[in-house]
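2024-03-11 09:14:02 INFO receiving multi-entity request
2024-03-11 09:14:02 INFO entity count = two
2024-03-11 09:14:03 INFO echoing inputs for audit
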Amino acid sequence: MRDLSTAGEKGDLSFGYRCLSPRDAACTDDRASPSLREPRAFPAAVAVGASFGLTAFDVDGLDARRVRLTPASRELARPLPEEGEHVFLAEAPGEVGFTALRLGDSRVVDLFHLRLVAPSFVAITCEDADPRTGAPSPVAAGAAVRCGLVPRASSGKVLAGALRGRWWTTTPDVLRLHGPGGTTLGEAAAEEITVEGRAPGLGEVTVESGGRTVSLALEVTP
Amino acid sequence: MKLGIAVLPLAAALTTLGCGPDYERIDFSSGGGSTPRLVMTGERAFTVRHGVAARVLPVVTLTSGAVDDDLEDRDLLLRSGDPSILRVERGADPLEYYFSAEAVGTTTVEVVYRGRRRGSVEARVAPAAAAMP
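2024-03-11 09:21:47 INFO inference complete, emitting structure
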């Protein structure tokens, strides 16, 4: 059975990583997992610019709900309380520590570290893409496919985290873009979009994220 | 015999007033394997890398050269001179502290030992990418 937790460095608590988007590489490599929100062991590294969730597990005598996870430096990992408890944004590269503070007496019970790496490459990937080349499969007119961003380190290794971007298309006659849950895509940044084929032709999807602009050609078939 | 009876309360009173064992210095031991989270760079200075959290176990050395083995949680208080650079928090175990390197810069960790302020230790938070000394 796969271990879905990572032991704290002191050994008194266990912690888990939570994906905030189905496009987070820490979750896409585990399609058998029953739930996106299910915590899992820590990834090797999280992309700078990406958001991610953390959790603490119950242990004997300590309720994980009575623990607050605090980054050692908000300059490296900024809490995003408006997006949920223990949700963070990777702000800068480095090794960032998190302390588990026991509510009530504010004593630290354990700690762990995560590695944050600035992505060297960012690519758009869509469902049903070629697993080897990453090339997207054609979309039939009237059909839709979900796309997101995949950050990679200079080594080519995929980095974890939900990377947001501002999406648009220069070929609105061929493709229509929808925000998360089928909402209208506005100016707000999104981690994942749905691309709908409108009419046969060659369309283009473009996204701006973290100062990078990336495009993907997508064929719409009859 | 009468002298002994008189000396004992006097020693207890002096200890209460902060005239207990003579403090010489404090050292911070920290885990981290081959890349320690905290490195002592002198008798009264240490460096941590920006962003890390270090579990710290303080060791007090007396002027006699001996380590204070009788140290209890209430005997020692460490506090940061600037929590915007280095946060100092108590751990759940006795005599356990956690140092969080919040921002690059230099500050101090003030030492209160047996009720008296005993100076400070210089704390340098080095940039995350910089090599440790």
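2024-03-11 09:21:48 INFO post-check: Chain A has one helix and 18 strands.
2024-03-11 09:21:48 INFO post-check: Residues 25-28 of chain A form the longest helix (4 residues).
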